Amino acid sequence: MIRLQSFVNDAWVDGTGEPAVLVNPSTEAPVAEATTGGIDMAAALAHSRDVGGPALRAMTFAERGAMLGTMAAKLHEYREELLDISRVNNGATRGDAKFDVDGATGTLEAYKRVGEKLGDKQVLVDGDITRLSRARFVAHHVRMPRPGVAIHINAFNFPAWGTFEKVAVSILAGMPVLSKPATATSWLAWRMSQIIIEAGILPAGAYSFLAGSAGDLLSHVGPHDTLAFTGSASTAGLLRGMDGFTKGSTAINVEADSLNAAVLGPKAEPGSDLWYLAVRNIVKDMTQKTGQKCTAVRRILAPVEWMDDLSEAISEELGRVVVGEPGTNGVDMGPVATASQLRDGRAGIEALAEQTSLVCGGSDPIQGTGAPEGKGYFIRPTLLRAADARSADKVHRHEVFGPCATLLPYDGSADDAAGVVALGGGSLVSSVYTDDRKWLGEFLMGAAPWNGRVLAATAKVADETLPPGMVLPNCLHGGPGRAGGGEELGGLRGLEFYTHRVAIQGDRGILSKILGIPSE
Ligand code: NAP
User: Does ligand 1 lie within 6 Å of residue 187's CB atom?
Assistant: First the structure.
């Protein structure tokens, strides 16, 4: 069994005390252990702030971007090993593992290009110059790297992408990182961290890593530290209430639960290209990473007269999905990542079934193909159907973090569809399939404010659209309300969280020289 260590103060350290045990979710066999017991979290943060911060801030965007490119290339050299760790510790199929690992390297690459574009600058200009007198007295609004530590706490489902999408943006912005993956699936993030540390790509103090619990880390945050948290709404609520974030105003960005929707609108009737696109995307979203994707569809809306056809089309596809040990030939979908996810997933299906009817799947145990008898955290792809969208309130409140979604009928109007989407209280992404422009316009006005991202699939772009579950480095990721109210990525926009905006008033000529920005 591998022992995962933490990297703090530029050294690998072994925690003390009882370790958490990581398992293979297909076999339940222990594969690794980790503990952060005894690690001085305050000292770790101070080292990042005092050593890593100055080193990164002395560099230009182009130099920091170049390091991200080197990290991507180095990680890519180990791709096969990383995909295998993902199978063993995350229960990922090869496709799911690629989604996570290649998503990480792809995001590093994308932010390398953002750095190239920003070039040899060290501050970001925010808007136009503001004239404050008739002559030379002006104000520049600029964004500068925060002189603190970018703390990242990630969820269990994307140990590779979740870790490195945050690393890419923070390092490019000029902040040192302290990254903590969810313990249960931390082997992959640990190995990737080990690769980039051993390669000596980043300056001293720029990267720290915790394998195991966060301990009292968040009791030591300072005014310019930041916390980017991805995980459950309940943990987010707990963290938001801590003194550093309330009394100390330390910035926190939350990506939490989300009840994403897919909506079939007019001119996406059964048999049309948009219909097939919707069915394909819905099934992919439900089964990719065994539905453990923050962007996976949980609510499927269609006009009441299409419900039977849609229910049949989706359940037929789900019926073909082979569930089992992801290294076994023919297996399409692996297990969920942990025993508690299996317990929560089954309990969630049962809770939703109180207000819906079961179309296919369900909470009964299932033997995974290729898995040892009675072992593994396998769950059936499950489709539920509500008779009335608005009275099935649990469907709009309870996220089953697994391969489960619910069909919800609406009356065909854009207004009703947007209203049902909004019942989710804020989502990361919704997709809409229609070729009726007027209807789409009305729907977007009502539904877009309830989402971080909306995919509008119309006939002419049907062949070009990417699945809604795919988070892209150049588009915003985050969502209002229940989804946490956060924003990550979005190209240059992602740097906002890690930079401080300041208005600097003074002599136009002097300021433009010092700050390296145009005086007009
Ligand atoms: P979780 O239980 O909230 O854990 C998330 C992270 O928080 C883990 O790293 C965990 O560490 C850490 N943590 C827990 N308690 C903490 C505390 N008191 N202080 C500091 N850190 C603490 O969530 P999860 O089960 O990993 O993830 C599932 C949820 O994440 C789902 O509900 C899903 O919707 C959401 N999610 C959202 C997004 C998004 O982008 N919006 C993406 C993925 C997942 P340990 O593992 O060491 O306990």
Answer: no
| pLDDT, tens digit, 9 for 90 and up, residues 3-20 | 999 999 999 999 999 999
- Active-site annotation, residues: 255, 294
Q: Which residue has the tokens 């890519």?
A: 76
Supply the residue whose CA is at minimum distance from atom 41 of ligand 1: 255
pLDDT at 516: 83
Q: Please, what is the average pLDDT of the chain?
A: 96
Query: Which residue's alpha carbon is at the smallest distance from atom 9 of ligand 1?
Result: 182
Token pair recorded at residue 84: 């295998």
**Among 157, 211, 213, residue whose Cα is nearest residue 338:** 157
Q: Which of 56, 47, 20 is nearest to 220 (CA)?
A: 47
Q: pLDDT tens across 169-179, in order?
A: 999 999 999 99
Angle CA(403)–CA(406)–CA(412) in degrees, nearest 5?
Answer: 140
Model confidence pLDDT, tens digit, residues 70-115 = 999 999 999 999 999 999 999 999 999 999 999 999 999 999 999 9
Strands, DSSP E only, in 90-243?
Answer: 124-125, 130-131, 137-145, 150-153, 177-180, 207-209, 226-230
Tokens of 112: 């390398």
- Say if residue 515's pLDDT is above 90: no
Phi-psi region of 17 (alpha: psi -120 to 50; beta: other; left: phi over 0): left
**Cα–Cα distance measured from residue 502 to residue 106, given in angstroms and rounded to the nearest whole number:** 32
Q: Which pair of tokens denotes residue 220?
A: 């030591």
Out of 166, 187, 229, 232, give the residue to mutate to test ligand 1, the one with the largest number of ligand atoms within 8 Å of its CB.
232
Nearest atom in ligand 1 to 478's CA: 41
* DSSP-derived 3-state class of residue 487: coil
Question: Is any ligand 1 atom within 6 A of the Cβ of residue 156?
Answer: yes
- Max CA-CA distance within the chain? 82
Task: Give, using CA atoms, the residue closest to atom 20 of ligand 1.
Answer: 214
| Region of 70 on the Ramachandran plot (φ > 0 left; ψ -120 to 50 alpha; else beta) | alpha
Residue 246: count of CB within 10 angstroms of its CB = 11
Sign of CA pseudo-dihedral 425, 426, 428, 433: positive
Q: What is the pLDDT of residue 411?
A: 96
Q: H-type helices in 339-406, by residue range? A: 339-353
Residues 6+ apart with CB under 8 A from 399: 257, 258, 259, 298, 348
Q: pTM for the whole thing?
A: 0.95
Q: In the predicted model, what is the mean pLDDT of residues 469-494? A: 96
* CA of 235, closest atom in ligand 1: 3
| Atom from ligand 1 closest to the CA of residue 212 | 47
